[in-house]
């Protein structure tokens, strides 16, 4: 049943579900830890007044007194760190004090331009291509 939408080019795009699919949306922190290998995406769920759907949200966060950034094993000379290391408490202070204006806060931890991310897109695992 439809209900999941993603944001692309400032528009909400409904995704057609695969039968018996189990969908996992990757969060911003996992995008940072995987050095962009897995990308988070702005998404939302909509209500269907005719049919029931079960959605479950689960969150896992690192301890507040730690720091986070790309896993060292995912940073090489060919693929430099796309995100800087940031304190977990600092990240959440900024995350929860921002305006709700899309998927923007994780970009504060990004290094430089998106060029390294674009180079990597060819090797990313993509579950669903939206055109």
From TrEMBL:
It comes from Carpinus fangiana. This is Fe2OG dioxygenase domain-containing protein. Residues 1-62 form the Fe2OG dioxygenase domain. Keywords: Iron, Metal-binding, Vitamin C. Pfam families: 2OG-FeII_Oxy. Residues 108-131 have a biased composition (Basic and acidic residues). PROSITE patterns: FE2OG_OXY. Residues 103-131 are annotated as: Disordered. GO terms for molecular function: L-ascorbic acid binding; metal ion binding.
């Amino acid at each position: 049943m439809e209900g999941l939408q993603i944001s692309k080019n400032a528009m909400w795009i409904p995704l057609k579900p695969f039968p018996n699919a189990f969908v996992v949306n990757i969060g911003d922190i996992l995008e940072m830890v995987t050095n962009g290998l897995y990308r988070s995406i702005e998404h939302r769920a909509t209500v269907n007044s005719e049919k029931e759907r079960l959605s479950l949200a689960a969150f896992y966060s690192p301890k507040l007194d730690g720091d986070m950034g790309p896993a060292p094993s995912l940073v090489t000379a060919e693929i430099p760190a796309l995100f800087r290391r940031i304190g977990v408490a600092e990240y959440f202070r900024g995350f929860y004090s921002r305006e709700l204006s899309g998927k923007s806060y994780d970009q504060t931890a990004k290094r430089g331009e998106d060029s390294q991310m674009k180079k990597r897109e060819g090797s990313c695992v993509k579950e669903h291509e939206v055109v």
